[in-house]
Write a structure and sequence with these properties.
Largest sheet: 2 strands, antiparallel
Distance between the termini: 4 Å
Number of strands: 2
Helix content: 55-70%
Shape: globular
Length: 110
Amino acid sequence: MKLTIEIDDDKYLESYLSIVSLGVLECIKRDLIDFDDAMHLIYLPSMIDKLEKLFPDLSNAILTGAQLEDVFSHVPDSFDGVVEEIRELNYKSIGLTCDKKRHVFYKLKE
């Protein structure tokens, strides 16, 4: 099965990825997924360079998210603060307004 997602607006794309990031953070906090899952879903270091120029706050959220496992392992007392930092970066990146709503196109193929 293959899912393709198409978003035709930069601001909507930034918002979409930020919303996904917030959901992944919630799943980590509830122990529904592990750090490897999070890395495969959204916190991909390879995305950082591509996002850095377009979406600086989102890029920082992705970079920080990619380091969550290290924070948890080496500085566990800082973990909740780092998660909150990622949330705040994502909140700044969500900018959906009535005049900027776009459709997300999903294509599912077997």
